[in-house]
Amino acid sequence: MNPSITIRKMDVDDVNEVISIAATSTLNPWSRNMFLEEIAHPHSGCFLIDIEEERRTAFPAGFICFRHIGEESELFNVCVHPRYRRKGLGRRLMAFYIDFCGQKGVKKIFLEVSPLNLPAIHLYHSFAFQEAGRRKGFYQGNHEAILMER
Asked: Are residues 77 and 23 in contact, defined by beta-carbon separation less than 8 angstroms?
């Protein structure tokens, strides 16, 4: 049986689960306060991808957070729980984000990614993102980031 998958707006009650997902995969995991501030920001989009398997209650399997202002958007954070990676959920979140940006009239999208995160880089390339530069010391003041744009 295929799981039921939905994307919905994140709210304050989701933050504890989101923090545990974020802690599994990032060089700079966001704090509870960072998620709360982003949810409250008027130009922010924070969404969850929920999965429901075999008549169980739906639960967050990943999330995406971004901001859009005028014709530009920046992807801040996207993450899928390790149990659900390589199942197309990251691709679904990115497709949702690209579609959202298109509906808002966004013309340029930016993001930063670690050069060590090859699966993410491959995913972003598949959505026509190109390297636009490097940011030294971006992650924890020590690790470089690739700046990408679409």
From this structure: no
User: Tokens for 20?
Assistant: 């545990």
The pairing of strands 72-80 and 108-113 is parallel
Residue with tokens 């190109």: 130
Q: Give the whole-angstrom CA distance, residue 51 versus residue 31.
A: 24
For 22, the token pair is 């974020």
Four-CA torsion 45, 23, 109, 46, nearest 10 degrees: -10
CA distances from 85 to 47, 79, 133, 139 (A): 17, 9, 27, 22
Question: Side by side, which strands form the sheet with 44-52?
Answer: 4-9, 44-52, 59-69, 72-80, 108-113, 143-149, 130-139
Q: Tokens for 120, please give them.
A: 């993410």
- pLDDT per 10-residue tile (average), the chain, 150 residues: 83 92 80 93 95 74 94 94 89 96 96 90 96 81 85
By three-state DSSP, how is residue 65 classified?
Answer: strand
Q: Which CATH number fits domain 4-110: 3.30.70.20, 1.10.10.10, 3.40.630.30, 3.40.630.20?
A: 3.40.630.30
Token pair belonging to 19: 């923090």
**Taking the complete model, does pTM exceed 0.85, yes or no?**
yes
How much is the pLDDT for 7?
A: 94
